[in-house]
Specification:
heterotetramer; A alpha/beta (about 325); B alpha/beta (about 325); C mainly alpha (about 325); D mainly alpha (about 290); A: about 325 residues; alpha/beta; eight-stranded mixed sheet; four-stranded antiparallel sheet; 12 helices; globular; B: about 325 residues; 10 helices; about 25% strand
Amino acid sequence: MNPALLSIKDLKVYFELRQGLPLPWREPDVVKAIDGVTFDILEGEVLALVGESGCGKTTIGKTLLRLIEPKAGIIQYRDQDLAHLKGVSLRAMRQKMQLIFQDPYESLDSRQSVFDILAEPLVIHQRVTQKKDLQACVFEALESTGLHPAAEIAQRYPHHLSGGQRQRVAIAAAMILEPEFIVADEPVSMLDVSVRAGILQLMLALRHQKNLTYLFITHDLSLAWVIADRIMVLYLGKVIEIGPSDRLIHAGTHPYTQALVSVIPSPIPDRSREQIILKGETPSPVHVPEGCRFHPRCWKFQRLGSPKECLTQEPDLRQVAEGHLAACHFLD
Amino acid sequence: MSTLLDIQDLAINFKTRSGDVHAVDGVSFQLEAGKVLGIAGESGCGKTTTALSIPRLLPSNARLVRGHILFDGVDLMQFSEGEIEKIRWKQISMVFQGAMNALNPVKTIGAQIIEPIVWHEPAIARGDANQRVLELLERVGIPAARARSYPHEFSGGMRQRVMIAMALACRPKLIISDEPVTALDVMIQAQILNLLKDLQKQMNLAMIFISHDLSVIAESCDEIAIMYAGKLVERGSIRKVFSQPAHPYTQALIRSFPNIYGKQELIHGIPGYPPNLIHPPTGCRFHERCDRCIDICAQSEPVLREVGEGQIAACHRIGETLP
Amino acid sequence: MLRFGLVLKKAVQVIITLFAVITFNFLLFRVLPGDPIRLIARAGNLSPEAISRLRDLFGLDKPLVTQYFYYLRNLFTGEFGMSYTYRRPVIDILQERIANTVILLAAATVIVVLIGVAAGVIAAARRGSKTDQSLVVTSLVFWSLPTFWTGLILVILLGVYVKAFPVSGITTPGASFDSSFARLLDLGKHLVLPTITLAIVDMGQFMLITRSTLVDVLTEDYILTGKAKGLPFRRVLWGHAVPNALLPIITTTALYVSLVIGGAIQVETVFSWPGMGRLMYDAVLRRDYPILEASFLFLAATVILANFLSDIMYMVIDPRVKEA
Amino acid sequence: MNATAVPASRPPNLWVQVWEIPLGRAGIILLGIVLVLSLVGPVVFPFNPKDITSTAADILQPPSSMHWLGTDELGRDVFRETLVGARLSLLVGLLATAISITLGSIIGLLAGYYRGAVGITLMRVTDFFLVLPLLPLIIILAAIFGQSFSITIMVIGLTSWPSTARIVRSQVISLRERQFIERIRSLGATDLRVIAVHILPNVLPLIYANTVLVIAGSILSEATLAFLGLGDPVRVSWGTMLHFGFVAGAAGRGAWWYLLPPGLGIVLVVLGFTLAGHTLDQLLNPRLREF
């Protein structure tokens, strides 16, 4: 197994909700968006972060890039603690980590030409000083993301491009500083299904060429299964299961993972499959349930006759198999 | 079985500044009472335009070029505005994408559900109408006490249940669901799909189910129609179309979805981008992106042909033995 | 539905704003122009005793901070000082004038809101039609009219040439009335021109805001839902679109209070209407600072309270308000 | 869409777009006419403010071949006076707007971009000035600081910025939540760069539209102030003309020729700016745009 590029230990991100008068005796409500997660991201891997909306997956991604301030915990990047970097050293680290957004219509400044969008990172970090070199860099980045002819595309504005082309521009802009680590936040979910594959292929090809590590955030377990080496499942700000992607899909052990996998729609219709439909919806991260936070919706908890552990004790991640961990008191 | 809806050669244009968009061009299909038809395709393929044209709800820049929409044997296109208003919701109701905006934010959900009941059935007693609202809410799994809540007090999944209760309010014959589970989490999506399926069976409803997600259609429909760039390219039973897709676009689209019960391989895409519908491509509209394209595909437009029992597709190369 | 905590929060904000206005007012009239005695008790018209009484009352020989507390104390006891020109307590003069202004503004506001909103709804409902275009152009022209000039032109047209309505004052001078109805009729006649002037100038804004809000609302998905339900357009319009468009209109009404106060000053000046506005104009001409100071404070407080009321109404109407 | 078929270009110039809409075009034409008249008019038809007659027969005379628009209360030619009055009205409007927009834009940018103490303080100050009734405030300030050309400009400029600040602020707040701004920040760009290169260009069109409307408002404010007797008494503007006309009882005497021309001047200029500003506003709000 590869060494860890990032080691995250007991990371917490809380947000305060303010309502009404800020009176001193009134405790503000706290959203526990990330409530103590520990995991590694291995060098050169694609780690998929999956979970339902509000589980904290985007918050983790942005916290790793220090776009959101953590409340506690360590983000170890090789030998540096990212969580406490400041000023110049943080700015220097930003070159090594990049973010690809979900919505290519939103993530590009519509007043910049493609050339300016791609040149901007280089200008910010003063990588290139000669105008001629700048052009060479930009054209190369465009070509390497499959945008031909580069000289022509560079003059365009985002509104002249299709969604898939824009996402390629966003990827080119993320790659131009030669980063090591990429957080991709639902990079294809806004795109038409027929162009998704092209974007994913591009991302995987670049990973091999440039030795990249990806944190791939998605709500789509089946997509995670085909693109990632490992999958990590989040529920209400906690990791509940992590393991090699095929194992997690076909031999997942946490009752939540099993339920999620059972309801994935498949393009090969088979009405005989049994679905585990969870009742209700994910509770609010302001009022996290006691004990195991999943127990109010857990089908196994009901089947086992409401065991006491689940009500009182928060389960820790336990090893199920080599590299496969899950947080449940009653694993299969 | 009787044909409830018969769409014949529908063609619709949108006027825009840059020219007329040929959004739907020559689409025909039939729907029997009590059946569920899925319409699939990518954004801009004309599926929503087709659906909205049935109760004549297209925006004012849309123009019907030709075609007929026969509902229970009468052509809705010949109706006056007043006549079509009597059909809407009473006979044909809709479930829109569950985002916040399909419900009026300043009215309680109870008021919004009762509105079409008292409008279409003016003779109904207020108490009976109220009773029906409570039954509908119960039926979609919302406690009756919440009739006095506002849309923002519900989650996305709950709002979609409200939308469904509302669609059932006047006991219509046909429900058109436009991307009813898009933007919902998988678990909520499964809940809503099951609810829709159960209600459809219990009430023997006919339903048109529009989605960009083939997997969702595969799980919830009897038949499927696939659209590309304003054209119907393939139609047939779910089982047939998914096991033996005839049109190259259908084949490519199916391969664009990962299938956890199949091989673990990266999804396939389709090269290029969907065409501009102001100046649609000549011949087959898919030929520029098709891996089986030959000379004739760019020149003449393929017609829909029977390719199997109850399955039709529009491709010049159907009938050739596959390589 | 109305959340007590939020109302309380708003109320606290209003009180803070009021204090800020009072302080601003205090500083403006005391610190900036130099000699406070010149402004508060400009010699000439007042007797030496009166001046020394004012000096004590406002603590004019004490440090500024002490003056501020004297000032606050005086405000809470309704003591605004003496007018130079009228030689009477400012508070008494204000009390006489306020009712007249309220009558004028109430009459104008009813017309402005009703016609402005109705015209806006009609324009939005027939967006792009001839009706819509002419309503928009009319509104823009009305919006561009200076209030005082509009008043002057109406005086010439309807007062001098046609002689349809009286052009000055609130009652016919020297007239005696047989009944209170005749008195009211006389007041009504005097009200016509000032009210029309105010209404014309401020109506455009209401119409334009209503129209653009409604045009916006009409693109929302729930409008399509309403149509899909088989409701005729006018029911969708009045039952779904207008209730949603009301919210911005309420906010506009609060801003309008500020605008219409400016209009009242001009209209009362032109028509010699004995209200707060004419009082301010006369005070400006005679540099009667105590009157100006008190009037400004009063008008600012009115606008702040109007804003507060509109916030509360917003909370009542909009079920979504959670955070202020 | 086949991207190669689309020419690479910036979106067309905003003023070109305004010109293409009938209302906007009417506004630009109106402004052009008034501007030319105010610049060329007084050269062709010079006005001498000291040309006062004492004979009653020359005072407030109706239009004649000698005086195309009659005479004022001092017997001067109203036509020539109106032409020269345009200059001051326009100048005050433009200079006051320059102050107002600069102040409003800077405060709005900072208040929107910085969420901490700086942002909150600026926001509170803006909201405070926004609730003060504008005309009474202007009157009070002018009454305290005296009557002169420059004080009028300062007073109008320093009181009319809050609406601009609020509009800019709310736009900046929504911009800074946008993904492209987050992306630029994640690249390691400094605040100055984010504001100058990304936020400012995106709010600039809004500032343009607002500027045009603020000019209209400033011209109205100047006229109102002057009408109430708080204008510069030694210079001729449309507002001071109306003031002297009103004080001299021109309305009661039916002297429409003295009150109509300067008032119409104001209406035309303000209408010109309002039409242009309204059109810009419509262009910038895509939901109001006709398809």
